[in-house]
Design a protein that fits this description.
It contains 15 helices and four strands. By secondary structure, the chain is mainly alpha-helical. The chain is globular, with a radius of gyration of 21 Å.
């Protein structure tokens, strides 16, 4: 039986992107929540929850971008020109945010400290919003002629992409709030539960809004799901229905967990809200994959058409088989090493 190398590499990239969203998503969410901290001590507690892991989380972004370039060079050559500006804005925001991690703790004068605090939560928001813009730009499609990008510099800027941009921001806020529930105690813990409920309500609204808006983007998406504005094809919709139904069930479950008082009998363990939020993201991600498969450049170029030669894919697969378990093991080790609640004064800046 022949091995479908393009599909295997598409799966590896999909896993890499999902890992990035789940891991860097929560620390971008925490970064945005620092704008609502009532004191510098509270803000330091929030940043201490992500300081040991934030830079390692971004490893998955490199895997996604580098893997796209190596395994699907045709897709990379089309996608990158289509999103040059949002990619540059995202990278600048991530760099500024990384610098702010260090500089905000060294700022003595209040105006300087305010600037670097603003760079921290502003960079977190800008990076998240840029990623949502690019997601929407992919879903709405990229103009291709002769195997090359044929659109304009601002094709990515539409009402639909603004909706997906805001949706990703709210989704990252949900991940960030659930991470704070896991890592904090007392007043900040209670605030995180409240923030989580607010973000979850926003996620539910955005989930519905984006789902219906997507139906108007390309007719093939509605055909794939057997769903249109006027009718439903049960033969197509019912086999796929468990994906959105699972997402909705997880939303209800998470709302219940976040609504319970921390000291109440039967309260959910603090690790469960984050796993439920990750499950909500995963259900949406699977739904996105169902909508776009087999295209890697939506509605224009398939995975097979964009893939590199088989000998190159085999060679890179050997490297991936060696390196991915190492990256996963390192990630698991770091998270286990820093497991537990943060305490006042925690964080490498305090030592």
């Amino acid at each position: 039986m022949a091995i479908d190398l393009p599909f295997i590499w598409a799966l590896i990239l999909a896993i890499g992107v999902m890992m990035y969203v789940l891991l860097d998503g929560f620390d971008l969410g925490v970064g945005m929540f620092t704008a609502f901290a009532e004191s510098e001590e509270e803000r330091n507690m929030m940043t201490a929850t992500v300081e040991p892991v934030w830079d390692g989380n971004e490893t998955w972004l490199i895997i996604g971008g580098g893997g796209l370039f190596a395994a699907f060079p045709t897709a990379y050559a089309i996608i990158m020109p289509a999103f040059y500006l949002p990619v540059l804005i995202m990278l600048a925001a991530l760099i500024f945010r990384g610098v702010a991690f260090e500089f905000r703790h060294k700022a003595v004068r209040r105006p300087t400290r305010l600037f670097w605090n603003g760079a921290f939560y502003g960079g977190s928001f800008t990076a998240a919003f840029s990623q949502g813009i690019m997601l929407g730009g992919m879903v709405q499609g990229i103009r291709v002629e002769g195997g090359a990008f044929a659109g304009g510099a601002f094709d990515w800027l539409t009402p639909f992409t603004l909706l997906t941009g805001i949706s990703v921001v709210i989704g990252y806020l949900l991940l960030g709030a659930c991470w704070l529930v896991l890592k904090t105690e007392d007043d900040l813990h209670n605030k995180a539960r409240k923030w989580g409920r607010m973000a979850l309500a926003g996620v539910a609204i955005c989930f519905l809004a984006v789902s219906f808006a997507t139906l108007s983007v390309d007719a093939s998406i509605g055909d794939r799901w057997g769903f249109s504005m006027t009718q439903i094809n049960p033969a197509r919709f019912l086999p796929l229905a468990p994906v959105p139904l699972a997402g909705m069930a997880l939303v209800v479950w998470l709302w219940r967990d976040l609504s319970m008082k921390p000291d109440a009998v039967g309260t959910a363990p603090d690790w469960r809200p984050y796993l439920l939020a990750a499950g909500i993201f995963l259900s949406g991600y699977i739904g996105l994959g169902v909508s776009l498969y087999p295209f890697i450049v939506p509605y224009e170029i398939s995975i097979t058409e964009a893939a590199a030669r088989d000998n190159a894919l085999v060679l890179m697969l050997v490297g991936a088989v060696i390196m991915l378990p190492i990256i996963l093991a390192y990630t698991a080790y770091v998270y286990s090493l820093f497991w537990g609640k943060v305490k006042p004064g925690d964080g490498y800046h305090a030592h």
